[in-house]
Amino acid sequence: MSDYNWCHNPDCHTIETQSRVRGTGDNKVLRTVKIKANRYGGYQANIWNYFCNNNCLFQFLNKFCVEIANTYSVKRPSETRIKDPYKSNPESRYPQWNIESINE
Ligand SMILES: [Zn+2]
Predict the structure, then answer these.
(1) What residues contact 81, with CB distance under 8 A and at least 6 apart?
(2) 1 CA to middle of ligand 1, Å?
(3) Measured distance CA(45)–CA(50) in Å, rounded
(4) Nearest residue to 8 (alpha-carbon basis) of 61, 74, 85
(5) What is the largest CA-CA distance in the chain?
(6) Which of 3, 19, 48, 87 could share a disulfide with 95, CB 3.0–4.6 Å?
(7) How far is the CA of 49 from the centre of ligand 1 (A)?
(8) Distance 12 CA to ligand 1 centre (A)
């Protein structure tokens, strides 16, 4: 990966914000946002290296979700084995369920 990416929302350049404006005089344009790699200290870098914000991420997902779902299709549910769950405080009106994974 290079030091930056362009936002992958194909409509990023149509969103009217001051930060997207480039050019001078009569030659102004709205430009796709340039994203610095590993901004936010690498927090959720898989997503935030490719989308400038939540709005662009969800516009992208809304546009391509069928293709994504077909590419990474789920034909049946997955299951994770756990120990028999128990209530931490059965007397409580709102008992918390403790679920411990067997695989840990
Ligand atoms: Zn964007």
Answers:
(1) 101, 102, 103
(2) 18
(3) 8
(4) 61
(5) 71
(6) 87
(7) 11
(8) 4
